[in-house]
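Standup, Tuesday
Yesterday: got the pipeline producing structure tokens again.
Today: sanity-check two examples.
Blockers: none.

Example 1:
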Amino acid sequence: MSIITKFIVLIFLFCLVFSSKTIAEEMKNVGKFNDWETILITEESGKVCFAQSSPVLQTPESSARNAKLFVTFRTSENISNEVSTTAGYEFDQNNSVTATFGEGVVKFDIKEQGFAWIADNKIEENVVAKMKKGSKIIIKGHNEQGTETSDQYSLLGFTKAYNAARMTCS
């Protein structure tokens, strides 16, 4: 092997080792709490911590979607209790995305890049309070073709995952 080839291989290995270490340092699984988990992402601007879960039931069943429900804390932006969801597709702008828990229904106001958010922090705090007391939450939305989907999330472990996210980012 020539010196130049050895040098290129050495640089490649150096980049590979340190880039994977950087990625590992940026995202950390804080803990798993029944059906929920807590994740910490360290960015240059600060910490992002969130509790997340995947649906226990999805309709239509035949759709292979990577749906998630999140409650996020962003220290650098002074954001807490940010409730968001993705259904694994772009939401139809002409239809609502809703969260149903018990008798309550809340609309997600913002739909962008496959995610939906609630714009009002007071409503988010109310949703979080109901999630802590409830056993399930159902998120309904429509894809761009108009097909309605429904994702049911268990709230088993939510309070512990939420508290871990809040404490990690405090």
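Example 2:
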Amino acid sequence: MIEFHPVTKHIGAEVTGVDLRKPLSPEEVTTLRQGWLKHLVLFFRDQHIDDEQHLQFALNFGTLNHPAFKKDSTSPIHVLDQTSPKGEGGDEWHSDNTFEPTPPMGSLLRCVQLPSVGGDTCWANTYLAYEALSPSLQRLCDELSAVHDITMSMKKAISKGHPFDLAEIQAKWPPIERPVVRVHAETGRKALFVNRASTTRLVGLSDRENEALLPFLIDHIRSPEFQLRLRWRPGTLAFWDNRPTQHYAVADYTERRRMHRVTINAFPEHADA
């Protein structure tokens, strides 16, 4: 029987009672989805699955997103294989692909090889970040939009040796405006939706107002009370809802860290309000 074991009060649960090597029944898929919507991040230990099993598990929850920056690959598996962090944006708090017209719904990240120490991942509950604001600030944020620009994180990656073509990236994904508060299409709850990796400014505010409010909101999301920190081990798979969370890959290792990620598209009918 599938069971969820919360690891903090507000975010994250370890899942037991399921073998990801085997096909899931419709009832098991429903149970996992309900637990995912409740806990935001699920992790499964000792699941030594291969890429095909990883893909089949992900397909229970939606269609798969092709990695945005992997031109030469036809696989939806995104391999993150590094001996040191190279600044792709993972070591900044962020939600995935907020620069796309429809950001992905969620991701499933599997640990294949790990440094002897380090390489953890943290997540933050952005529902809770919104709900912890004063009612007056909530009302202000409800009315605001913000600009998201992928070039913020790409410039950092290029400075660390990644061969990205900034002009091509800017042409494909120009800056886009999004609500500062997004409404989750399945739960109806509100979540803060700004991040350090790609949010450049709040629309309609002066420079001084931006300098005061945007850093406050970004830093507020990082409060420890909203967070989960996962210590990986080979065979661990994490499955998170990208809509009410942000995550951060801790850049504290110099040995090989190999992770395989599959990302799930948002359903058209689940576009956020």
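Quick observation on example 2: Residues 3-268 form a domain with the Double-stranded beta-helix fold (CATH 3.60.130.10). The first helix runs from residue 26 to 39.
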